[in-house]
Amino acid sequence: MKMEPIVYGDRKVFTVAVFNQGVAQWLQRLPTIWVEGEVTELRRQAGWQTVFFTLKDPETGACLSAAMPRGQFDALRLDLANGERVHVYGRPELWPQKGELRLRALSIERFGLGEHLAALERLKAKLAAEGLFAESRKRPLPRLPRRIGLVTGNDAAAKRDVLTAIQTRFPPAQVVVAETLVQGRRAAAAMVEALAAVAAEPDVDVIVLARGGGGFEDLLPFSEERLVRAVAACPVPVVTAVGHEQDTPLCDLAADRRASTPTAAGRLVVPDLDELLAGLTRSRDALARGARRVLERHAQRLAREHERLRRAPALLVERRRAALAQAAGRLRALSPRATLDRGYAIVRRGGELVRSTAAVTTGDTVAVELADGRFGARVE
Amino acid sequence: MTYEEAEKELAGIVERLERGDAGLDEALKLWERGEELYRFCAAQLEAAEGKIEELAKRVDAARPAG
After folding, report:
1. Which of A65, A127, A300, B26 could form a disulfide with A132 if both were Cys (CB 3.0 to 4.6 A apart)?
2. What distance in Å separates residue B29's CA from the closest CA in chain A?
3. CA distances (Å), A42 to each of A55, A78, A254, in order?
4. Which domains does chain A have, with CATH numbers?
């Protein structure tokens, strides 16, 4: 077919066939790729050479026609039914007769729960090997966050539960909430963005990522690599509360703390105000007691010193008196009395000691002193 | 100073004072500092009015009907 336009004066005009042909040729330059979607409107008839079906995006409802030669389709032995999730390998083409875009399928793979689980396990192993889930990466939660970030879906329950738990336990809490998509294909990207937005808010010291219960597929965004990495890389600690107790999406493993429910998450990020106030009062009392104790100790020491000082002069006199008594004792020991006791006598004449016979003459009166007394005598 | 830092310092001062071996000047200084920390913590708890702020929704109207 000729691709030349017909020329009418200064206007070039293409026939429909030529236009379709041209677009079809241009489309052929596009690469062969994998497309994921849900199979609907599957039409396979014995008389047809081609099997037709529509791929539907379960999230947005966007549709794409697809076609595959019947022999090839049957050889895959997929036994596909409407509503099944598939990956289709193919390339876009234009069906010239109708001017319709469709996907020329070269291969189809069923992508169901099992594949999801296997992919999840692979991702989990990969991230674990990187150390993303290591205990050593976990940061402690602040005892009293200045502000709390909350990333949650617009399903009211999870958000309400977190906020109620926070406000009951700690009424002065400052919370900044970012509502975001939590379900569907775009949820992970939206949550990554919301997480970053909340983390960028000033004074946000901890972030709660919460979502109520849901089916396995509903919680899949919480296991997407980019969200898991964003949780791990978040500049402030993250507490996750996703789904029910038994669900463990990968973001739980990367979080600094995992809560079993949104309410539990709320209780984790704030202290109990009453307890805090009681503790503070106790501290203050202890402070006053401690200060008093130091003061008392110093006062006691001072009193002891003073007492010693006061007693010092008396002590001095006492000491001298003792020294004196001792001297007296020694003095007594040296007195002649001891000699008298042994039978000696002291003779005095006119008060003078008689030391020699020459000192007396016959007829003198002398005084004789013995140990137990004295008497007078006349020298013969 | 964060609440945690203040609380921790206060606990340290209480412990120091409870040992009773501080000098008199030091004890008075510790006590004054402790009171200051107490007031800081108490103010943090009592002054703040609880607040819930909604961050502007960046992703909205993205959910398909149904």
Report:
1. A127
2. 10
3. 9, 13, 41
4. 6-113 (2.40.50.140), 119-274 (3.40.50.10550), 336-378 (no CATH)
For an interface test with B, give the residue of A177, A198, A294 to mutate (most B CBs within 10 A).
Answer: A294
**Along the 380 residues of chain A, how does pLDDT read in single tens digits?**
567 888 898 999 999 999 999 999 999 899 999 999 999 999 988 889 999 999 999 888 899 999 999 999 988 888 888 888 899 999 999 988 889 999 999 999 988 777 778 888 889 999 999 999 999 999 999 988 989 999 998 767 899 999 999 999 999 899 999 999 888 888 999 999 999 999 999 999 999 999 988 777 788 899 999 999 999 999 999 999 998 767 789 999 999 999 999 999 999 999 999 998 999 999 999 988 888 888 888 888 888 888 888 887 788 888 888 888 888 888 777 777 777 888 888 888 888 888 888 888 888 899 998 888 889 999 88
Contact A150, A163 (CB under 8 A): yes
What is this structure's pTM?
Answer: 0.59
Query: Which of A280, A296, A302, A305 should we substitute to test contact with B (largest number of B Cβ atoms within 10 Å)?
Result: A280
Residue A79 carries which side chain, given as an amino acid letter?
A: D
